[in-house]
Amino acid sequence: MFEGLKALNAKISKMYSDFLVYEDFEQIADRDNVRDCLSYLKEKKFPSIDSFSDIYEIEEFLEDYRRSQIIKLRGFLPLKYADFLKAYLERINVEKITKILRALRMNREPKVDKLVISGKNINFNDETFESFIDNLRDTHYYDYLKNYKSSKDEDALFSIEMNLDKFYYRNLTESIKSLSKEDVDEFKNIFGVNIDLLNIIWIYRAKKYYNIAPEEIFNFTIFGGNYNSEKLLQLSYLDEAEFEEEIKNSKYAVLFEAGRVIRTGRTAKKTMYGIAKKNFRRTDGIGKFMSFLVLLDFEIANIERILEGTRFGLSKEEKLKYMIIDREGSEEIGR
Questions:
Q1: CB-based contacts of 191, cutoff 8 Å, min separation 6
Q2: Triad 299, 304, 308: Cα angle to 5°
Q3: Within 13 A of 9's CA, how many CA atoms are on the CB side?
Q4: Which of 104, 106, 97, 163 is nearest to 136 (CA)?
């Protein structure tokens, strides 16, 4: 506990009370076009939202919103949490780098506003896949990308994305090592669970759909969750049926409940949402702040999903099924 924690939690609770509720998403899903959806969001939550030329500009707006919400809380946090917050915000750069690389791989213009790392603008316009990676040479991302920059292999982008995820979560896990045991336990209850879920999805899909060798499966697992490296190694070498049985006998049994087969990971996201929401309500420690970060991510993801569904002409019911929320009927079996 630290002086000012009560003030932080009061601020977080007020900010969370302003989140969109399910009924808001029902209202948005009822709209037939993105412009009408944005009109509702402008009236209900985002007074400064405006019309956008495409969905990518909306994503930039929502990213700015997420950053601003986090910055509002920075002043309430003691300096000992600065490393954690910095590591958490690295996710913004990781996502931008991934978007840029995907676009360049497909010979498209990257739909990213700008990329700033350590105060330096990284050029990506008029670049190739290889030259953009070269532009990252003086950043901590380069070592995770350099071996793939000249690769023509179709799986190169996949490997890069997996490596960036490993970097991000390793960095996040390292950032909390100087914190108290109580704080580390709070981290494990939230971000540690998220890492577990990501590993389960990866291992299962690698076995079921891609026939990837166990040693390569293990190589791409993410450390820092509640499964140690020995357990991750064991899970990587189980066959598909054994792996499924192992998870069914764990606290993550819901992933395979009622005949589910992991495809998109929506059930895992819904599980993470429920855990974060429960932790947010029951803890008065730093876990409330950490849970808020996860719930903020899901609020933004749900807005993007509803807008994307509207853009593709999905029905109201179909849009709501894609939401990440702890509500009956918000997912389909086998997701």
A1: 169, 172, 173, 224, 290, 294
A2: 150
A3: 16
A4: 97
Coil/strand/helix, residue 121: strand
Digits of tens for pLDDT over the chain (335 positions)?
677 889 999 999 999 999 999 999 999 999 999 999 999 999 999 998 877 767 788 888 999 999 999 999 999 999 999 999 999 999 999 999 999 999 999 999 998 988 999 899 999 999 999 999 999 999 999 999 999 988 877 788 989 999 999 999 999 999 999 999 999 999 999 999 999 999 999 999 999 888 899 999 999 999 999 999 999 999 999 999 999 999 999 999 999 887 777 766 788 899 999 999 999 999 999 999 999 999 999 999 999 999 999 999 999 999 999 899 876 554 443 34
Q: Which two tokens stand for residue 58?
A: 């909306």
Q: Give phi and psi for 117, each to the nearest 5.
A: -125, 120
Question: DSSP string of 16-54?
Answer: HHTSPPHHHHHHHHT-SSHHHHHHHHHHHT-TT----SS
Closest to 330 measured CA to CA, from 247, 261, 274, 256: 274
The 8-class DSSP code of residue 305 comes to: H
The rounded distance, in Å, linking the Cα atoms of 322 and 248 is 24
pTM greater than 0.85 (yes/no) = yes
Q: H or E element: which one contains 117?
A: strand 116-117
| Residue found under tokens 């909306």 | 58
Amino acid letter, residue 310: T
User: Would you state the structure tokens that stand for residue 195, as one six-digit string?
Assistant: 């890492």
Strands (E), 150-219: none
Q: How far apart are the first and last CA of the chain?
A: 39
Q: How far is CA 245 from CA 6, 45, 333, in A?
A: 43, 44, 18
Q: How far is CA 255 from CA 90, 193, 243, 270, 295, in A?
A: 28, 13, 12, 10, 20
Contact status, residue 330 vs residue 302, Cβ threshold 8 Å: no
Cα separation, 28 vs 335, in Å, equals: 24
Residue with tokens 């350590």: 118
